User: Which sequence fits this backbone?
Protein backbone atom coordinates (compact mmCIF):
# COMPACT_ATOMS: atom_id res chain seq x y z
CA UNK A 1 0.00 0.00 0.00
CA UNK A 2 1.18 3.52 -0.78
CA UNK A 3 2.44 5.94 1.83
CA UNK A 4 -0.22 8.43 2.89
CA UNK A 5 0.80 11.89 4.12
CA UNK A 6 -2.05 13.52 6.00
CA UNK A 7 -2.77 16.08 8.68
CA UNK A 8 -2.54 14.73 12.21
CA UNK A 9 -5.66 14.25 14.33
CA UNK A 10 -5.84 14.32 18.10
CA UNK A 11 -6.66 10.59 18.00
CA UNK A 12 -3.09 10.05 16.69
CA UNK A 13 -1.53 11.43 19.87
CA UNK A 14 -0.94 8.12 21.64
CA UNK A 15 0.74 6.54 18.60
CA UNK A 16 2.81 9.69 17.98
CA UNK A 17 3.95 9.78 21.59
CA UNK A 18 4.96 6.11 21.37
CA UNK A 19 7.00 6.94 18.26
CA UNK A 20 8.64 9.94 20.02
CA UNK A 21 9.40 8.14 23.33
CA UNK A 22 12.59 6.27 22.25
CA UNK A 23 14.02 9.55 20.97
CA UNK A 24 13.75 10.90 24.53
CA UNK A 25 14.87 7.77 26.37
CA UNK A 26 17.60 6.49 24.03
CA UNK A 27 18.99 9.41 22.01
CA UNK A 28 20.14 13.00 22.06
CA UNK A 29 18.10 13.77 18.95
CA UNK A 30 15.87 15.58 21.42
CA UNK A 31 17.41 17.26 24.45
CA UNK A 32 14.23 16.49 26.40
CA UNK A 33 14.99 14.38 29.49
CA UNK A 34 11.53 13.09 30.46
CA UNK A 35 8.89 11.58 28.19
CA UNK A 36 5.92 13.94 28.25
CA UNK A 37 2.59 12.67 29.50
CA UNK A 38 -0.09 11.95 26.92
CA UNK A 39 -2.00 15.06 28.04
CA UNK A 40 1.10 17.25 27.70
CA UNK A 41 1.79 15.79 24.26
CA UNK A 42 -1.80 16.45 23.19
CA UNK A 43 -1.52 20.02 24.43
CA UNK A 44 1.64 20.49 22.35
CA UNK A 45 -0.21 19.16 19.31
CA UNK A 46 -3.18 21.49 19.92
CA UNK A 47 -0.92 24.52 20.28
CA UNK A 48 0.99 23.67 17.10
CA UNK A 49 -2.12 22.97 15.04
CA UNK A 50 -3.58 26.42 15.74
CA UNK A 51 -1.04 28.03 13.45
CA UNK A 52 1.11 25.39 11.78
CA UNK A 53 0.83 22.09 9.91
CA UNK A 54 1.27 18.85 11.83
CA UNK A 55 1.63 15.96 9.39
CA UNK A 56 1.86 12.19 9.73
CA UNK A 57 3.06 9.53 7.32
CA UNK A 58 0.86 6.46 7.42
CA UNK A 59 1.05 3.10 5.71
CA UNK A 60 -1.39 0.21 6.19
CA UNK A 61 -2.96 2.08 9.11
CA UNK A 62 0.37 2.50 10.95
CA UNK A 63 2.03 5.86 11.56
CA UNK A 64 5.65 5.75 10.39
CA UNK A 65 6.63 9.31 11.22
CA UNK A 66 5.49 12.84 11.80
CA UNK A 67 6.61 16.34 11.00
CA UNK A 68 5.46 19.76 12.11
CA UNK A 69 6.45 23.38 12.24
CA UNK A 70 6.48 25.83 15.09
CA UNK A 71 7.39 29.43 15.76
CA UNK A 72 11.02 30.35 15.20
CA UNK A 73 10.76 33.26 17.65
CA UNK A 74 7.83 34.90 19.37
CA UNK A 75 7.90 38.29 17.64
CA UNK A 76 5.68 39.38 14.74
CA UNK A 77 8.69 40.14 12.52
CA UNK A 78 9.56 36.42 12.62
CA UNK A 79 6.11 35.23 11.46
CA UNK A 80 7.54 34.23 8.05
CA UNK A 81 10.09 31.90 9.70
CA UNK A 82 9.40 28.54 11.34
CA UNK A 83 11.31 25.82 13.12
CA UNK A 84 10.76 22.41 11.54
CA UNK A 85 10.63 19.09 13.38
CA UNK A 86 10.58 15.51 12.15
CA UNK A 87 10.58 12.10 13.82
CA UNK A 88 10.56 8.80 11.92
CA UNK A 89 9.94 5.39 13.44
CA UNK A 90 13.34 3.76 13.97
CA UNK A 91 12.65 0.80 11.69
CA UNK A 92 11.55 3.12 8.86
CA UNK A 93 14.50 5.51 8.78
CA UNK A 94 16.37 5.85 5.47
CA UNK A 95 13.37 4.58 3.48
CA UNK A 96 12.25 7.91 1.99
CA UNK A 97 9.49 8.53 4.55
CA UNK A 98 11.27 11.56 6.02
CA UNK A 99 11.86 13.14 2.63
CA UNK A 100 8.19 12.74 1.67
CA UNK A 101 7.05 14.19 5.00
CA UNK A 102 9.31 17.22 4.68
CA UNK A 103 8.31 17.81 1.05
CA UNK A 104 4.65 17.80 2.10
CA UNK A 105 5.41 20.08 5.06
CA UNK A 106 7.18 22.53 2.74
CA UNK A 107 4.20 22.56 0.36
CA UNK A 108 1.82 23.52 3.16
CA UNK A 109 4.22 26.07 4.67
CA UNK A 110 4.71 27.66 1.25
CA UNK A 111 0.91 27.87 0.86
CA UNK A 112 0.85 29.64 4.25
CA UNK A 113 3.32 32.21 2.83
CA UNK A 114 6.12 31.03 5.13
CA UNK A 115 9.51 31.97 3.65
CA UNK A 116 12.23 30.56 5.94
CA UNK A 117 12.66 27.13 7.52
CA UNK A 118 15.02 26.50 10.44
CA UNK A 119 16.10 23.24 12.07
CA UNK A 120 17.75 23.04 15.49
CA UNK A 121 19.77 19.81 15.53
CA UNK A 122 21.82 18.00 18.17
CA UNK A 123 25.31 17.60 16.74
CA UNK A 124 28.09 15.47 18.26
CA UNK A 125 31.74 16.41 18.11
CA UNK A 126 32.30 12.65 17.98
CA UNK A 127 29.45 10.34 17.01
CA UNK A 128 28.36 7.92 19.74
CA UNK A 129 25.53 5.52 20.56
CA UNK A 130 23.18 8.42 21.39
CA UNK A 131 23.80 10.81 18.52
CA UNK A 132 25.22 10.78 15.00
CA UNK A 133 25.41 13.49 12.36
CA UNK A 134 22.63 11.77 10.38
CA UNK A 135 20.01 14.44 11.08
CA UNK A 136 22.25 17.25 9.83
CA UNK A 137 23.11 15.17 6.76
CA UNK A 138 19.41 14.49 6.13
CA UNK A 139 18.62 18.21 6.28
CA UNK A 140 21.57 19.08 4.03
CA UNK A 141 20.33 16.52 1.49
CA UNK A 142 16.98 18.36 1.46
CA UNK A 143 18.56 21.74 0.79
CA UNK A 144 19.18 23.10 4.29
CA UNK A 145 22.50 24.81 4.90
CA UNK A 146 24.49 25.10 8.10
CA UNK A 147 24.29 28.58 9.63
CA UNK A 148 25.66 28.15 13.13
CA UNK A 149 27.04 25.79 15.73
CA UNK A 150 26.84 26.11 19.51
CA UNK A 151 29.40 24.15 21.49
CA UNK A 152 28.70 22.12 24.62
CA UNK A 153 25.22 23.61 24.94
CA UNK A 154 23.21 20.43 25.58
CA UNK A 155 23.96 18.03 28.42
CA UNK A 156 22.35 14.60 28.36
CA UNK A 157 23.48 11.08 29.33
CA UNK A 158 26.41 12.58 31.28
CA UNK A 159 27.91 14.13 28.13
CA UNK A 160 28.03 17.49 26.44
CA UNK A 161 26.67 17.83 22.91
CA UNK A 162 26.79 20.62 20.38
CA UNK A 163 23.77 22.00 18.59
CA UNK A 164 23.58 23.39 15.07
CA UNK A 165 21.09 25.58 13.27
CA UNK A 166 20.36 24.86 9.63
CA UNK A 167 18.15 26.89 7.31
CA UNK A 168 16.31 26.60 4.04
CA UNK A 169 14.86 29.64 2.32
CA UNK A 170 11.68 28.91 0.39
CA UNK A 171 11.49 32.41 -1.10
CA UNK A 172 15.00 33.92 -0.94
CA UNK A 173 14.20 36.77 -3.37
CA UNK A 174 10.95 37.96 -1.80
CA UNK A 175 10.98 41.63 -0.80
CA UNK A 176 7.49 42.03 0.69
CA UNK A 177 5.99 38.79 2.01
CA UNK A 178 2.25 38.16 1.90
CA UNK A 179 0.31 37.84 5.16
CA UNK A 180 0.57 34.47 6.87
CA UNK A 181 -2.36 32.08 6.51
CA UNK A 182 -2.61 30.47 9.94
CA UNK A 183 -3.98 26.91 10.08
CA UNK A 184 -6.95 27.67 12.33
CA UNK A 185 -8.44 30.29 10.00
CA UNK A 186 -7.47 28.58 6.72
CA UNK A 187 -7.64 24.86 7.53
CA UNK A 188 -9.78 23.78 4.56
CA UNK A 189 -7.67 25.68 2.00
CA UNK A 190 -4.37 24.45 3.48
CA UNK A 191 -5.46 20.84 3.89
CA UNK A 192 -6.34 20.82 0.18
CA UNK A 193 -2.64 21.44 -0.61
CA UNK A 194 -1.72 17.81 0.19
Assistant:
Amino acid sequence: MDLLIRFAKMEDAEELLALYTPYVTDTVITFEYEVPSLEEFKDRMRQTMKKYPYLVAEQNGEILGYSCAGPFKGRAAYDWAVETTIYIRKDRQKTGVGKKLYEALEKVLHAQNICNLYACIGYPEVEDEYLTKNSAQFHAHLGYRMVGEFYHCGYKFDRWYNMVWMEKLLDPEIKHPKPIKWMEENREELEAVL
